[in-house]
Amino acid sequence: MLRLATLALSLTLPMAAFAQCGGAFSEFKSGLKAEAVSMGIPPASADAFLSGVRQDASVLRADQAQGVFQKPFIDFSRHLISSQRLNKGQQLAGQYDSTFDRIETTYGVDRSVLLAFWAFETDYGAFQGDFNTANALATLAHDCRRPELFRPQVLAAMRLHADGQFDPRTTTGAWAGEIGMVQMLPQDIIENGVDADGNGRVDLKTSATDALHSGGKMLQHLGWQAGQPWLQEVTVPTTMDWAQSGLETVKSTAYWQALGVAARNDTLADLPASLILPQGHKGPAFLAYPNFNVYFEWNQSFTYVLTAAYFATRLGGAPIYDAGNPDTGLDSAQMKRLQHRLQDKGYDVGDIDGILGAGTRAAVKAEQQRLGLPADAWPTPALLNQI
C-alpha cells in the first residue's frame, strides 16, 4: 500500500495524551479506554472494541519498509502508471459519469483527481489491504514514533464502533489504518464520510459511489478550489536561474513566462505557481498551482504527490511528459551518505532514510549555490563527491 497516513486530526485531546505510548500494551489499552470514556464513548463499547485488539508486528515492518519512495520521479511514475490503469480509469470515468457529475457540482473536485487516487490507493478498489484496522491503529499508536497521529485515530475508530459503523474484529484495510477504495482514516470518515447511495450507511469498501463522494468531500474540506488546475507540464529555457525552482518559490504565471517558461501544451493558467524540477533542470518540468498543495494533506511524499497529480492530468487528456535527459541521481546508499554529510554541515534533512524529501532538497540547493552549480535541488554523484 502506497498511502502514508499524514492528515491532521481534529479530535480535541490534551497534549499529555500524545505522550501515552510504549510500555505494557495492556496498560496502553487501559489508557485508551479512560480517554475514550472521557470523550463520551460508553464504557461497555470501549471494552468491546479493545478486548480483542492486539499488537501486529507486520504493521511495524510495513511502516519501516517504504523503499518504493526512494525511487526518483521518472522511475516511480513509470512504475505506477500503466496503460491498463489509464484505460481502466477512462472506462470508470464513463461508468460513473453521473456520480462524477454530482461530485464535481457538489465539491468542485475534477473526476480525474479522484480517479488517480482511486487507482493508486487500491487499484480502483481491487486491493484495499488485509490488515486488521483496529490492530494496525493501536499498534502504531502504541509505537512512540508518531503517537500524536495514530492515537486520535484509534479513538475515532472507537467512536465509529460506538455508533455501529465499525467492527474491530472484521474491518480491514491498509497497514496505516486507512479503509476503503480511496483509503480514508477513521477521523476522515467521521468528518467527510458520505452516504451517497442512500442506503443508510457510509460504505467505503464496497460502494464506489460512497467512496468517491467521501473523497471529494475530503478534498474540498482540505482546501481544493473548484475549477482550478493543479499541475501543468512546461518547457524551460536552459539559461534561467534554477534556484527559483521548488515549492518554496511561488510566482505569477506572468513572472514565469517572462523567464521563458511556457506550457508544453495548451496555455498557462492565470494563477500563482511554483516551478517543479523533480529530477533537475535536464528532466521533466511542471508548474504546480495552489490545488497541488492540497495533495500534501492527503500524502506527504513529494514523489507520490507529483505522480498522483501528473496521472490525474493524464486521465484528463494530457500527453506523456517529456522525460528529458536528467543527470544520474543517487542510489539509496549514496543518498544516505549525502544526508549524513549534509546533517554534519548543520542542515536539517529529517530522517536519514535515503529519500529525497523536502529537507534534503533544500540542503542540496543551498550546497549547489555555494559551489556554483545549477541550484536545481537534484543531487548527483558529482555533488556528493564535492560535499
Automatic annotation (TrEMBL):
Q: Could you name the domain of life of the organism this protein comes from?
A: Bacteria
**UniProt keyword annotations, A-Z:** Signal
Q: Which residues form the Peptidoglycan binding-like domain?
A: 333-386
Instruction: Write the protein's name.
Output: Lytic murein transglycosylase
Q: Which residue range or ranges hold the Transglycosylase SLT domain?
A: 25-312
**The organism of origin for this protein:** Pseudosulfitobacter koreensis
Signal peptide boundaries: 1-19
Report the Pfam families cross-referenced here: PG_binding_1, SLT_2
